[in-house]
Design goal:
Elements lengths: L7 H5 L7 E4 L2 H14 L6 H17 L12 E4 L5 H19 L2
Parallel strand pairs: 1-2
Helix pairs in contact: 2-3
């Protein structure tokens, strides 16, 4: 099963066999989000998107219930400068050995 979310590995399913904490620098994340919005036909200024992401990060890290944290035991993957295929390959290099060795 694959689950995704900002608190999945720390709150929703902390006992997950494999956990990832994906990160990228703020500018990269802002460019990616702006590109997603533009692809959907929405007008998005990079500076506004960057500010929105920074504000959400701050709110998520400071909230009382299920704050954004790196889950214990998570594999940290910095995706700055990586394409989707490279990120998937990185994740698979971790998951495939775990899947291979835990199946009955």
């Amino acid at each position: 099963m694959v689950l995704e979310g900002r608190d999945t590995g720390s709150v929703v399913w902390p006992e997950a066999e494999v956990k990832f904490y994906l990160d990228a620098d703020l500018d990269t994340r802002a460019r990616r989000r702006r590109d997603e919005l533009v692809a959907r036909g929405l007008d998005a200024r990079l500076e506004t998107v960057r500010d929105d992401i920074a504000r959400r990060d701050r709110q998520d890290m400071e909230r009382a219930l299920a704050p954004l944290v790196k889950p214990e035991g998570a594999v940290v993957v910095n995706t700055t400068g990586l394409g989707i295929a490279e990120v998937v390959d990185t994740l698979l290099r971790v998951v495939e050995p775990a899947r291979c060795c835990t199946r009955s």
